[in-house]
TrEMBL record:
Residues 267-533 form the Penicillin-binding protein transpeptidase domain. One of its GO terms (cellular component) is outer membrane-bounded periplasmic space. It catalyses: Preferential cleavage: (Ac)2-L-Lys-D-Ala-|-D-Ala. Also transpeptidation of peptidyl-alanyl moieties that are N-acyl substituents of D-alanine; [GlcNAc-(1->4)-Mur2Ac(oyl-L-Ala-gamma-D-Glu-L-Lys-D-Ala-D-Ala)](n)-di-trans,octa-cis-undecaprenyl diphosphate + beta-D-GlcNAc-(1->4)-Mur2Ac(oyl-L-Ala-gamma-D-Glu-L-Lys-D-Ala-D-Ala)-di-trans,octa-cis-undecaprenyl diphosphate = [GlcNAc-(1->4)-Mur2Ac(oyl-L-Ala-gamma-D-Glu-L-Lys-D-Ala-D-Ala)](n+1)-di-trans,octa-cis-undecaprenyl diphosphate + di-trans,octa-cis-undecaprenyl diphosphate + H(+). This is Penicillin-binding protein. It comes from Umezawaea endophytica. Keywords: Carboxypeptidase, Glycosyltransferase, Hydrolase, Multifunctional enzyme, Protease, Transferase.
Length: 668
């Protein structure tokens, strides 16, 4: 539960003829809002005339004088109609005859919202410049006055500068500042918001408050920051305090002593409702939100959507593909798709979908997407799971996701989460939550309800859910269960991702390769029946090497996997060990039996020790004995989760889920 600024908070009242209200401040207000305030009868005839003409012509315009604006704010009637404006004019005229200009001005300056959680001009002086009102320069006053028109844009880069220039120009025209002063002024940058803001949620949790405020402002709720602050509302959020603490502890425990350039995020969602239970979006709560404020390549963590598309076509996890490497595909004759170093199916040319997912065999999924189900159906499956069709990042224009050139179907790189395949980490967690919810998508949310200061219910969340992968809920459930049946083999393959105390969990790692050695992005996304969580790791600089404290490459099962495991173990410590429902398999659930037997022996090294271990593979029937390789791996480790045993390929790129297997073949 979060209380958002009760009325009177962050507000300092201005007295009539207050000595703190300097001529510079008054002139800045007049220049921005009503240049004729001191002489007009409560309204500006010319401005009203312009507004009437524009509205009659089908446009929009302000036209309200300062007195009218005060009436509008005081009565909370902001309908953009001529009838409302006429009523304002009448009331403004009466007020001007009954009240002095100083009284009207003080009332107005105490009422207006100016952004940065500031009500009134005195609070604005402190929130923008950390100064008393009478300490503001004419230039600083010009910016504060300029933001009255649209205070919600106070933190944008260009809009405040534009408004400051406008007000300064008006002040010069009215001779309220000299030409010399005007010529010597540069934009008076406000102090950093972090230095003056008093958030209900501080530190890394300030990102949660930002998400709550964004949800409040959504069309569904329609509550602006100004209205929320004015009412003094109480917001009940979905965040579970214990799980939020678990996310912070997990990050602190794993990332202690790691390089400062690493950036990471964690989201946890209740699959049954879409409620966000934990949200860790970066070390700077007022900085970049790495959960919802960036788009990243998901690498092999995107491969489950290939599987969904195949299952929708009736193809089971026992279907076999040619998993050999490298392989040429249409359009990639000169840049063949490769598997990561050391990754191979037991019988490369007869690799089942299940084995390919666990080992993250790129050539299988590229083949499946390009030659069988089609890349558009892979994109559709991801959208059905919860990846939005378009998003707007950091206040920018909406951009479509998972599309190719000119909005066409994506190319084959979508099969391995590379190329133009860009997603938000938050949405990947939401999509995996759909698997955990057995094929039912629940729109994620932060607010359960909003109450007024008197306890009156102002908003109650209503679940927005749908059958994700098929119109028939039973079929969608079956598809999701098949995905889980495969993904639950992955976390338990490594001690770094295996859930504690024998708890059954499912998930997938992923990386985006930078060159033949390093990665620039790393992921771990997974779930149990009651909780989905995703961890992303990258850098603020973008495509630069991810290196840990030992100066070795970061992979999905490395730092991200360790954060994920630590969080899940803490968050679920006292929770029942719910098992996944047994899947009703679709299509061919097991690969066909080969015709001959071979036994292979291989020496491997556990990545957690320097001692080599010897394992003997089970007899494997095959008709191509020359292609046979061992499917056995170091204890507690699969090829998809182990470091490479040799140097990376100098040509081409690969994709996969973890150390030695986190390559994306889309980067030249």
């Amino acid at each position: 539960m979060t209380k958002i600024a009760p009325q009177g908070s962050n507000r300092e009242l201005l007295a009539v003829d207050d000595p703190q209200l300097t001529e510079d401040v008054k002139h800045a207000i007049f220049a921005a809002e009503d240049a004729t305030f001191e002489t007009n009868p409560g309204f500006d005839f010319k401005a009203i005339g312009r507004a009437v003409w524009i509205q009659v012509s089908g446009g929009e315009s302000g036209g309200s004088g300062l007195t009218q604006q005060y009436i509008k704010k005081a009565t909370e009637n902001e309908a953009p109609t001529l009838s409302r404006k006429f009523t304002e004019v009448v009331k403004a005229y009466k007020m001007s005859n009954q009240k002095g200009k100083g009284e009207i001005l003080a009332a107005y300056l105490n009422t207006i919202y100016q952004g940065r959680s500031a009500f009134g001009i005195k609070a604005a002086a402190k929130m923008y410049y950390n100064k008393e009102l009478n300490q503001l320069s004419a230039s600083e006053a010009a910016l504060i006055a300029g933001m009255i028109q649209n205070p919600s844009r106070s933190e944008e880069a260009e809009y405040p500068v534009k408004r400051w220039k406008f007000v300064m120009g008006q002040m010069l025209d009215k001779k309220w500042i000299s030409q010399e002063y005007y010529d010597t002024q540069t934009y008076p940058t406000p102090v950093p918001l972090a230095d003056v803001q008093q958030n209900a949620l501080e530190g890394v949790r300030a990102h949660i408050q930002a998400q709550v405020e964004a949800e409040m402002a959504s069309p569904e709720i329609g509550m602006t920051e100004e209205k929320a602050l004015k009412l003094g509302i109480v917001v009940h959020t979905t965040i579970d305090p214990a799980m939020q603490q678990a996310s912070e502890t997990a990050v602190q425990d794993v990332m202690a002593g790691q390089p400062d350039n690493l950036r990471y995020s964690l989201t946890a969602i209740d699959p049954s409702t879409g409620a966000v239970r934990a949200y860790w979006a970066g070390t700077d709560g007022l900085g970049i939100d790495y959960n919802r404020g960036t788009l990243q390549e998901p690498g092999s963590s995107f491969k489950p959507f290939d599987l969904v598309a195949a299952l929708q076509e009736g193809k089971g996890v026992g279907e076999v593909y040619d998993g050999s490497s490298p392989r040429k595909f249409p359009g990639r004759e000169n840049n063949p798709v490769k598997n990561a170093q050391g990754v191979a199916c037991a019988v490369p040319k007869q690799c089942s979908v299940r084995e390919a997912m666990v080992k993250s065999v790129n050539t299988v999924f590229y083949d499946m997407a390009v030659n069988e189900v089609g890349t558009q159906k892979v994109a559709d499956a991801a959208h059905q799971a919860g990846i939005p069709e378009e998003v707007a990042i950091a206040g920018g224009d909406p951009q479509k996701l998972l599309v190719g050139e000119n909005g066409d179907a994506p190319d084959g790189n979508i099969s391995i989460g590379g190329g133009k395949t860009l997603v938000r980490p938050f949405d990947m967690t939401s999509a995996y939550a759909t698997f955990a919810a057995r094929g039912t998508y629940h729109e994620p949310y932060f607010i359960t309800k909003i109450e007024g200061p008197d306890g009156k219910l102002l908003h109650q969340h209503a679940d927005k859910s749908r059958s994700a992968f098929d119109a028939d809920p039973a079929k969608s459930e079956q598809i999701a269960d098949n995905v889980t049946d495969v993904l639950k083999d992955i976390p338990k393959a490594s001690e770094r991702t295996k859930c504690a105390n024998g708890r059954e969990c499912a998930g997938k790692t992923g990386t985006h390769e930078l060159d033949g050695v390093d990665n620039s992005k790393a992921w771990m996304v997974g779930y149990v029946p009651t909780l989905a969580a995703g961890v992303y790791m990258g850098t603020e600089a973008g495509n630069v090497p991810l290196r840990n404290a030992e100066d070795t490459p970061v992979f999905g099962s490395g730092l991200p996997g360790q954060i994920w495991k630590r969080f899940m173990d803490l968050a679920l410590e006292n929770a029942p060990k719910d098992a996944f429902q047994k899947a009703k398999m679709i299509g061919q659930s097991e690969p066909p039996k080969p015709s001959t037997q071979t036994t292979t022996t291989t020496k491997t090294t556990d990545p957690t020790t320097t001692e080599p271990t010897t394992t003997t593979g089970k007899p494997t029937e095959t008709s191509e004995t020359s292609e046979t390789t061992s499917s056995r791996n170091p204890p507690g480790c699969l090829p998809a989760l182990c470091p490479p045993t040799g140097p990376s390929s100098p040509t081409g790129t690969n994709a996969g889920p973890g150390p030695g297997n986190g390559r994306n073949p889309n980067d030249p």
